[in-house]
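yo

u said u wanted the structure for the complex thing, so here. seqs first:
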Amino acid sequence: DTGVSQDPRHKITKRGQNVTFRCDPISEHNRLYWYRQTLGQGPEFLTYFQNEAQLEKSRLLSDRFSAERPKGSFSTLEIQRTEQGDSAMYLCASSGGLGTEAFFGQGTRLTVV
Amino acid sequence: ELKVEQNPLFLSMQEGKNYTIYCNYSTTSDRLYWYRQDPGKSLESLFVLLSNGAVKQEGRLMASLDTKARLSTLHITAAVHDLSATYFCADQGYNTDKLIFGTGTRLQVFP
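structre next:
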């Protein structure tokens, strides 16, 4: 499979717990993005990487959120001390460069109870 | 503030009819993307529009870009049930890679 892969697909966690999601981009893509989508809304940008460098972070990304892409390949998104408002679909995408289309993974659906 | 506005938000149309979804964007990047999303699924790339007057067609869908009006349209020709989904346009801000999405247009095609 050469598409963007995300793991896990679903995660249910108790409020206050930490969760970590993984994204494997398309292998030749150097740009990787994280978005969050709540029900009935369009995706909202969280952050993106070019290779291992995190180039931009949204104000939505509070200090409870951290993203890494240590070797410029896969990326992780960690949420600490989860809150019910964090419940959403977390989407990862990758692209080959500016002005090229971004391909999205299947997403990780997070439910905080 | 960077904004992308789509209308209509919801569209119910009969099979065989034509309709247009409108997308107004606010940046000057003039890079506009269209995606399709089925319920509970991820986003499927439909079109990438990179220049004024760009027009792309795939099957019953045709997308166009007017950078002077900062407007993109997605035209549906002779709709079929398989086109039922939510359609998003997304603007790629100037000098940035991030996509700013509209709220989506939920399309329902009935017999």
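Chain A has a mean pLDDT of 93. Residues 65 and 79 of chain A are 5 Å apart (CA to CA).
cya
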